Amino acid sequence: MTPLKNRAIGFTCSYTPISLIEAAGFSPYRILPVGDSEDQAGQWMHDNVCPHVKRVLDRTLGGDLPENLAGVVIINSCDAMRRLADAWRRADPSSRVICIDLPIRSDERSVDFYAGQLRELTDWLGAISGNTPGESDVSSAMARFQVLAEHFGRLRGYLAAGILTGGAARLQDLYNRCATRPVEASIDELEKIVADESSRAKGVPVYLFGNVMPDAQAMSLFESCGARVVVEDLCTGSRLFKPLMENDDDSDVFKVLAESLLTGVGCARTIDAAPGATAGNVLARAKAAGAKGVIGHTVKFCDPYIARMPGIREFMREAEMPFLMLEGDCTLRSIGQHRTRIEAFLEMIG
Amino acid sequence: MMKEYFDGIVGGIEERIKNDPENASPRMKYALEVSRLGARLYGGSDRVAWCGVLAPFDVLSAFGVASCYVEFVGASLAASGMAGPMLEASEHEGHSPDTCAYHRAVVGAAGKGLMPTPDFLIATSCPCTAGVTTMENLARHFKKELFVLHIPQENTDSNVRYLTGQLEDMVEFVAKQTGQSVDWGAIGKAVTLSNQTSEFLTEIYDLAASVPSPVRSRDLRDFGVVMPLISGTQAALDTAKVFRDELRARVESGEGGIEDERLRLLWIQNRIQFKNPLEKILEQEHKAVVVVDELNSVTWDPVDPDDPLPGVAKRMLSSPFAGRIDARCDHLKKLVRKYKVDGVVNPCHWGCRQGTGARGLFADTLRNMDIPVLNLEVDCVDARSFAEGQLKTRIGAFCEMLAERARPA
Question: Using a CB-CB distance cutoff of 8 angstroms, which residues of chain B are in contact with residue A49?
Answer without folding.
Answer: 353, 356-357
